[in-house]
Design goal:
heterodimer; A: mainly alpha; MetI-like fold; two-stranded antiparallel ribbon; 76% helix; globular; B: alpha+beta; twelve-stranded mixed β-sheet; 18 helices
Chain lengths: 323, 570
């Protein structure tokens, strides 16, 4: 197993390196300039523009910039963010915990919620409730994440003002409250963006889990369980669910990229100061090091997610573990 | 609504025992102003600021020697209000002005403001290593001397009607003791940039990137304490989110409402709107040079008569009404109505579609195809109109203009571009036509850079359409150097008439800035160039305060930078 993990980690490193190189090339080749605001100012002279480019090493040929960047990476540095005027490591170091918190809550919530819905549907399979829930999950499954985010924002912050309008905490009152208040404030602000992501992801989980449960229900061991006199909820929980979890474990790995890209839009709309929000803004301002740094961290998260699901799969399935 | 939400949350927190000790005692706070804004400031260094948020915040932290009056007069010192300088004296030949520094003025770290700070501000801005966008605005200032600690003398290269304006408006004064030891190339990244020390009525408290910037009243300021205790710029890059914060009561103020948002704001009895003539205008700029070979005229727009015909085919009034409803006026030309030098009755090329068709016919552009489009020698009358996709307003203009010009037999392909790409195309002059928008300075002389020959020929010039007319240049130069207000206005009028008749652009709209704010706020005058200029005079009556008004400033104030050896804080 350890050898397998080591192999996968080596593959992951190669993938991350390729992704970083492609991103570096694409963002630098895209038209535009990190100093767009400066360029748009009629008072800025060419000398000033050249000075700024030279200060950030953007006057050097692209291959030279790439070599310098790789040198930085080798030293564990991700470069200097032009738009934040601080190291990329620092910018992402502040943003990443917020993204992980949002994604983590959404991931756990969506799997718990999605599996419960699937169990509920299967226990009433063929009924009106089952059809309604299938329709609802299809509805959320097909809904664009940014659209659902805007809808949730308007519904629960404006028409029904239950939640705050974005942000990770209340910038006006947060400092005023004690530790407990600050935690409540954080959770209060986390609720709506996490729920939005959770709704999107749980629809997928529910559909997968329902299908997996329906696949195992005709199996002999389920029939045996019924003949033993177990109740239907017990059969579902103790026998069907445990055997139908394998596809869902795969889904954990697949959910990482989906959640990460979803978080990009959700973070922007809810002004959640996470990595997605920072990278989206960085693309607009052509903050090359921040974009590449964000992509590197994102690709590491995705490859690790995929590795995690493979390992979990192997642990959960004795047939794979024995190979 | 906000009060209800806060009360609900506050009650929950009290029940949980979560509220800090500060809450137990109400203070005599003047209230908190929370402003919805679309982004972080770029930097909080006055000589490097580019973004509007950066300008708003640095203007609250740093003072100028004197501030421009609400009339925006830029001639001599008429209407200017004393700030760090309590009075000034002109030399007999007007080639120098001696500013006397207010002896009670202090930096927020407690050190007194001195004339050497003034000298340092100008000298550092002129240093090319700093890369300040203000450098080109202070070229007439030769140097600043400091004969004593409270006198700063500005020396000018030439006598000019705007020399006082140039001296005081372009740059707030910065503390030498904070910045002197930092190499200019390292200013942006320095700790001092993240903990600015100013001298104005608000001091910096904290900046949480992508979340908020907080300032607190400087209660011992030489100009007196401002009425509001705390200012918070609450950042939301998505406009819907920023607006929803105002509508739900999380913020008190938004600086620009879209036309479609005004009815929504009107549904809220606690909210108000107010209009302000801003220094902005938009236009469809024609590229007069061939985008591929700049040495040749543009195959379509190189012809003055054709440009006039396109302007005639455009119903600008209808365009502006469609896009802005009543929140903009048709633009007069490369100017705004807020300038004292602008004649609001400037003659325009009228909307006259039949006449436009006649002109196009006479130029050989005739309708030959079944789809009513014009062509000449097999070349269709067709061009690409570039717009940044980040501006919904400009995209709307482009689509409407496309339809209006189609009726004259002109085919317009609208090209929506990412903003940096749009800018790159403009800078390289690699476009046919583009919808641009300019925010100008209080000085009408800024028109030289955007529409003058110098701005066309310099590689970094911002006259992207390459319009060149020596008559226009001469009128502008004469107007800028005129000391007599009437003559100045007459000369600017001549310049505007010249450019309007040359039609290097279709002048589209002059937006009227419409702000949204909570009725508990009592606003002062909104200045056309900077609505925020009078924030220290804004207030919230005691009976209209909500819980956030009584919250004291953040407990994590900025750490003043270390003082140079031998200096002690008084």
């Amino acid at each position: 197993m350890l050898r397998y993990i080591a192999q996968r980690l080596a593959q992951a490193a190669v993938i991350v390196a390729i992704v970083a190189t492609i991103t570096f090339a694409l963002i630098h080749l895209a038209p535009g300039d990190p100093f767009s605001a400066v360029m748009d100012n009629p008072n800025v002279s060419e000398t000033v523009r050249q000075t700024l480019r030279a200060q950030y090493g953007l006057d050097r040929p692209l291959p030279e910039q790439f070599v310098r960047y790789v040198g930085l990476l080798a030293h564990g540095e991700l470069g200097w963010s032009f738009s934040h005027e601080r190291p990329v490591r620092e910018v992402l170091g502040t943003a990443l915990p917020n993204t992980l918190l949002l994604m983590g809550v959404a991931l756990v919530g969506s799997f718990v919620f999605g599996i419960l819905i699937a169990l509920f549907q299967v226990s009433r399979r063929g009924s009106v409730t089952d059809h309604v829930l299938s329709g609802l999950s299809l509805f959320f499954f097909s809904m664009p994440d940014f659209w659902l985010a805007i809808l949730a924002l308007l519904t629960f912050t404006y028409w029904l003002p239950i939640f705050p309008v974005g942000g990770a905490f209340d910038p006006v009152m947060h400092e005023y409250w004690g530790l407990g208040g600050r935690i409540v404030d954080r959770l209060y602000h986390l609720a709506l963006p996490a729920l939005t992501l959770m709704l999107l992801a749980s629809a997928v989980v529910a559909r997968y889990q329902r299908a997996a449960l329906l696949d195992v229900l005709p199996a002999d061991y389920i029939r045996t369980a019924r003949l033993k006199g177990l109740t239907e909820p017990e059969i579902l929980r103790r026998h069907a669910l445990r055997n139908a979890l394998l596809p869902i474990i795969t889904l954990v790995g697949l959910s990482f990229p989906a959640l990460l890209t979803g978080a990009f839009f959700v973070e922007k709309i809810f002004s959640w100061p996470g990595m997605g929000y920072a990278v989206v803004l960085a693309i607009g301002t052509r903050d090359y090091p921040l974009v590449v740094g964000g992509v590197i961290i994102g690709s590491i998260m995705v490859t690790l997610g995929s590795l995690l699901s493979d390992v979990l799969y192997a642990l959960a399935d004795p047939r794979l573990r024995s190979r | 609504m906000a009060a209800m939400r806060y009360t609900r949350l506050l009650c929950a927190l009290v029940v949980c025992g979560c509220v800090g000790t500060e809450s137990s005692s109400a203070n005599n706070s003047g209230g908190t102003l929370a402003i919805s804004t679309g982004g972080d400031p770029d930097v909080l260094i006055p000589s490097l600021v580019q973004s509007v948020q950066g300008a708003q915040i640095t203007d609250m932290i740093y003072d100028r020697l004197a501030d421009i009056g609400d009339s925006l007069n830029t001639l001599n010192d008429k209407g200017f209000v004393p700030r760090l300088s309590d009075h000034w004296t002109w030399s007999a030949d007007s080639l120098s002005i001696a500013f006397h520094i207010n002896p009670t003025a202090k930096w927020h770290d407690g050190l007194p403001v001195r004339s050497t700070d003034v000298r340092f501000t100008i000298a550092s801005t002129k240093d090319t290593l700093l890369g300040s966008p203000a450098t080109s605005l202070i070229t007439n200032i030769d140097s600043v001397s400091a004969p004593d600690s409270l006198t700063a003398v500005y020396w000018f290269h030439a006598r000019s009607p705007q020399q006082f304006y140039d001296a005081v408006y372009q740059l707030p004064i910065m503390p030498e003791h904070v910045w002197k030891s930092i190499p200019p190339a390292g200013w942006r990244a320095s700790d001092a940039a993240k903990n600015p020390v100013g001298s104005s009525q608000y001091r910096f408290v904290r900046w949480i990137p992508r979340v908020a910037v907080e300032l607190a009243a400087d209660t011992v300021n030489y100009r007196g304490a401002p009425k509001l205790s705390r200012l918070i710029w609450s950042i939301a890059p998505d406009f819907t989110t920023a607006l929803t914060r105002l509508l739900s009561g999380e913020t008190d103020f938004i600086e620009q409402l879209r036309p479609e948002d005004v009815p929504e704001v009107a549904k809220h009895p606690e909210l108000r709107t107010k209009q302000n003539h801003a220094l902005q205008y938009s236009f469809t700029q024609f590229n007069l040079r061939d985008p591929v070979n700049h040495s040749r005229p543009h195959p379509i727009f190189g012809n003055r008569q054709l440009r006039r015909a396109l302007t005639m085919a455009t119903d600008r009034g209808a365009l502006v009404r469609s896009v802005y409803d009543s929140l903009a006026l048709p633009a007069l030309g490369p100017t705004v109505r807020a300038y004292p030098t602008t004649d609001p009755n400037l003659p325009q090329i009228p909307f006259d579609l039949p006449r436009a068709r006649q002109i196009l016919d006479s130029l050989g552009w005739r309708v030959t195809t079944s789809d009513s489009l014009r062509s000449r020698n097999g070349r269709p009358l067709q061009f690409t109109l570039s717009v940044p996709n980040s501006s919904k307003i400009r995209v709307q203009f482009a689509v409407l203009l496309q339809e209006q010009l189609r009726q004259a037999g002109v085919k317009v392909d609208v090209e929506q571009l990412d903003y940096p790409v749009f800018l790159e195309k403009e800078r390289k002059r690699a476009f046919d036509a583009a919808i641009g928008q300019l925010s100008t300075q209080p000085s009408p002389g800024a028109v030289r850079g955007s529409w003058g020959t110098a701005g066309s020929r310099a590689a970094s010039g911002n006259n992207f359409g390459s319009y060149e007319n020596p008559v226009f240049d001469a009128y502008v130069d004469s107007a800028v150097s005129s000391f007599d207000p009437a003559t100045r206005r007459a000369l600017f009028t001549k310049a505007y008439e010249t450019i309007i008749q040359d039609a290097p652009a279709i002048w589209l709209a002059e937006p009227i800035q419409t702000i949204g704010y909570h009725s508990r706020l009592q606003l002062a005058t909104l200045r056309a160039d900077a609505w925020w200029a009078h924030i220290p005079e804004w207030s919230i009556p005691a009976d209209k305060r909500i819980p956030r008004d009584n919250a004291p400033p953040s407990a994590s104030p900025s750490t003043p930078p270390a003082l140079p050896a031998g200096q002690k804080t008084p």
